[in-house]
Amino acid sequence: MSPSSASSAPSPRPGGESPLGALSILPARSRSEQLADVLAGHIDGKGLRGGDRVGTLEDIRAETGFARATVSEAVRLLRERGTLEIRPGRGGGIYVADQTPVVRMRHTLLSAQAGADDVAYAIELREGLEEPVARAAARTCTPTDAQHLRDAVRELADSADYETFIRRNWALHEQIAALCPNPMMGAVYTSCLGYLVRTNPRYDDVEADAYIAQRAAVHERLVEAIIAADASAIADAVREHNLTDPELGTARGAGAPAQEGPVR
Known about the structure:
The structure is a single chain. The longest helix is centred in the middle third of the chain and has 25 residues, at 116-140. The two termini are 34 Å apart. Helix content is 58%, strand content 6%. The relative contact order is 0.11. The protein has helices at residues 31-45, 57-64, 68-80, 101-110, 116-140, 143-157, 162-178, 183-197, 208-228, 231-243, and strands at 53-55, 84-87, 93-96, 202-203, 259-260. Helix 5 (116-140) packs across helix 9 (208-228) and helix 7 runs antiparallel to helix 8. The protein is mostly helical. Strand 2 (84-87) and strand 3 form a beta hairpin. The chain has two domains: 29-99, Winged helix-like DNA-binding domain superfamily/Winged helix DNA-binding domain (Arc Repressor Mutant, subunit A); 100-251 and 258-264, Four Helix Bundle (Hemerythrin (Met), subunit A). Strands 1-3-2 form a three-stranded antiparallel beta sheet. It has a two-stranded antiparallel ribbon with strand order 4-5. The protein is built from ten helices and five strands, in the order αβααββαααααβααβ. The radius of gyration is 19 Å and the shape is globular.
């Protein structure tokens, strides 16, 4: 299941411009996007249907050789498309998604256009769900799940820049949401993440290393509270997390990175 190299962009017709204009110049595609397409093709080629098990993130990583972050992002893309779902707990993993009301609801949320007010509403909704999702995840978190969450926090702390940090942060929160046994709550939460991930802020690099380290420490405390199933610690970690939330772009506290473009 290794992605093939992208083909070159089509040339304009002889004697004139392409009727597609700028659309004939295809943008560069990330490895995660390529892997998502390969996985979707694999599902179609194997004739897999809703409820069929695809494997785990580690299975895909071992098969393709991609980094865990790339695999997580590819699976996230396919979850947004309604192709895959993640089932937590024993016997869980990555499955082909049924076209349930939850999947259709996620499609509806993700089809909305990201205006400034809408993004603010998505942030408010996501923050309101942060604690109940974390508390629910704590009820189902297994030792294996705990190790995966800790691995994700370590990757977060190793981020070389803000963009990498933000992508890894979203991947971590999606792992937490995948442990939530309430499918409706998990779907709304991850839909908010997917809605916000589509905006493209730019960040100043002033004191990036120190800032990333500080935010990674906040997420580590959240993860350890979930693993310990400590409701009080979860509440404290969520409050600290939401005080200044640069990965959403709310920048409500001192020291948050400067941004240009839409708030997220």
